[in-house]
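Q: what sequence does this backbone want?
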């Protein structure tokens, strides 16, 4: 049996002499004296500027990727909104036709058309007046109050 294969009977190898508790090979004072001089201030500043550039490039790449992802999400959201508006439009048309067909036996076809169209025009006028008052409220926010 070789020395490096010996055990103490417990099945474990003896501790490694070059482990964390091993004695240092050199005196720490000699190590500091023999090492290179610390970097100069200009070297430190150049390294700092280089690190700043690297950080800025990485941040820019991250923001570009994030913007692309946001663009895709906005595009998908816009598509869903357009489909929803189109389906709402079809639903309103079906409601109008259904109202005319439901009123036809009671008042006749021409009267049912007149009632439905009159009701829709009344709704349009009310919504237009609400839009006008809302736009006036918004424009008053931007008026100059000093004069």
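A:
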């Amino acid at each position: 049996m070789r020395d490096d294969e010996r055990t103490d009977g417990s099945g474990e190898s003896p501790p490694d002499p070059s482990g964390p508790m091993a004695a240092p090979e050199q005196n720490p004072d000699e190590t500091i004296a023999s090492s290179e001089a610390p970097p100069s201030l200009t070297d430190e500043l150049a390294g700092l500027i280089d690190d700043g550039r690297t950080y800025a490039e990485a941040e820019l790449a991250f923001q570009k990727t994030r913007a692309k992802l946001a663009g895709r999400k906005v595009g998908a959201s816009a598509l869903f909104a357009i489909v929803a508006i189109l389906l709402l439009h079809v639903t309103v048309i079906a409601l109008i036709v259904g109202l005319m067909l439901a009123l036809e036996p009671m008042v006749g076809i021409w009267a049912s058309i007149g009632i439905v169209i009159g009701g829709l025009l009344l709704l349009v006028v009310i919504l237009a007046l609400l839009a006008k008052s809302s736009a006036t409220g918004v424009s008053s926010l931007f008026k100059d109050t000093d004069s």
